[in-house]
Design a protein that fits this description.
Layout lengths: L2 H9 L7 H9 L4 H9 L7
């Protein structure tokens, strides 16, 4: 899956967190909005 496809899926809210990821996100006090923003603005450094 390429970065542009991930960005489109995030923008369209076509994703879900696994139970483990959701638990870890909550423990680390990271909002879903923070994750969405990080993924919308990501780039590949090394391919």
């Amino acid at each position: 899956m390429d970065v542009e496809k991930i960005k489109k899926l995030i923008t369209k809210e076509k994703y879900e967190f696994l139970k483990h990821a959701e638990r870890e996100r909550e423990l680390d006090m990271i909002s879903t909005n923070e994750i969405e923003n990080a993924l919308k603005n990501c780039e590949i450094i090394v391919d």
